[in-house]
Amino acid sequence: MKLLLAGGGTGGHLFPAVALAQRLLANEADAEVLFVGTAQGIEARILPELGLPLATIKIGGLVGKGLLRQLAMGPRLLTSVWQSRQILKKFRPDVVVGVGGYASGPVLLAAKLLGLPTLIHEQNAALGLTNRLLGRWVDRVCLSFDETHCPLSPGRMVVTGNPLRLGMDNCPPLPNGEPHLLVFGGSRGARAINQAVVAMLPHLERFNGRLRILHQTGSEDLEAVRAGYLQAGWDAAGVVPFIDDMLAAYAQSHLVLCRAGATTLAELTACGRPAILIPYPHAAADHQTANAQALAARGAALMLPQSEMTPEVLAHLVGDLLENRERLLDMAGSAWALGKKGAAERILEECRAIRR
């Protein structure tokens, strides 16, 4: 099967698409994949490192833009649809998959005009703008959450879960030994979380010397966070700009402090890891809050709104959980029970079903 995957911009959109591509290439000797994204998105850095092909188009986002800027996007949208059409005609995919992000819309529009089979995958509990607009006429809509409200034809919707990077299904159970805290805020970091964790450290002095923290800060905050750890008298060896091996990071952790992006939640549930979730308050349609509520309602995580994330509150939550292994194990079990294993293969099965 020749599969074209459109979208990206963030790790939450890109990594599920990578999982689909890797699974297809591993299963079918004659399979071909092509990603379409933008030169500014994370895909422009990650995909070459993975040896996966990328074509780019010129397009930006509409969410949060004023009316004049939205109107000014009109000519660029037409250009991006034309660019997408040229890419599609050259690659001649069997199926076009939209995973969200700026590039997804123009490519799916061009695919529709060419009469190609189309599928969209929604990672979040709330539909993104592109998927809300295009979901009514694509051939299939794959959802990650049972709770997703999707006013589309039920005959075209299927809950598949969110595809995971290779190895995530094989994460070991919660480890024994001294506590490990994993902190990250997405592929680019999260300044609010970075600052709150540094300010939290003096309130966790009873853990100093035995609590190991692996903290992904993003490149911009790296030096400031390292300095904050050292000033508080904590080891800064685990403060890093980016974590390449997320499976190893999850495997050694007892508790995770993070945002509530869809890919993160899929990995937490696949690995069975308890979490304190701080939804990004400015996410489109506040979808991260909906994501976090889906896990918190089932006892797999605690949700802490960013507006309530004081150093004292954060230290209280982290400290109480790390000192209560029985509760961590209960949360881990609830998280693991929510994991939807085999999501990549289920989506690929839907791709094969709509292939003409």
Automatic annotation (TrEMBL):
Molecular function GO labels: UDP-N-acetyl-D-glucosamine:N-acetylmuramoyl-L-alanyl-D-glutamyl-meso-2,6-diaminopimelyl-D-alanyl-D-alanine-diphosphoundecaprenol 4-beta-N-acetylglucosaminlytransferase activity; undecaprenyldiphospho-muramoylpentapeptide beta-N-acetylglucosaminyltransferase activity
Pfam families assigned to the protein according to its UniProt record, in alphabetical order: Glyco_tran_28_C, Glyco_transf_28
Residues of the Glycosyltransferase family 28 N-terminal domain: 4-141
Record's keyword terms, sorted: Cell cycle, Cell division, Cell membrane, Cell shape, Cell wall biogenesis/degradation, Glycosyltransferase, Membrane, Peptidoglycan synthesis, Transferase
GO cellular component, one term: plasma membrane
Annotated positions binding UDP-N-acetyl-alpha-D-glucosamine: T10, G11, G12, N124, R165, S187, I243, Q288
Pathway the protein contributes to: Cell wall biogenesis; peptidoglycan biosynthesis
Membrane topology listed for this record: Peripheral membrane protein
Family annotation (SUPFAM superfamilies): UDP-Glycosyltransferase/glycogen phosphorylase
Protein localization: Cell membrane
Family: Belongs to the glycosyltransferase 28 family. MurG subfamily.
General function of this protein: Cell wall formation. Catalyzes the transfer of a GlcNAc subunit on undecaprenyl-pyrophosphoryl-MurNAc-pentapeptide (lipid intermediate I) to form undecaprenyl-pyrophosphoryl-MurNAc-(pentapeptide)GlcNAc (lipid intermediate II).
Protein name: UDP-N-acetylglucosamine--N-acetylmuramyl-(pentapeptide) pyrophosphoryl-undecaprenol N-acetylglucosamine transferase
Organism per entry: Trichloromonas acetexigens
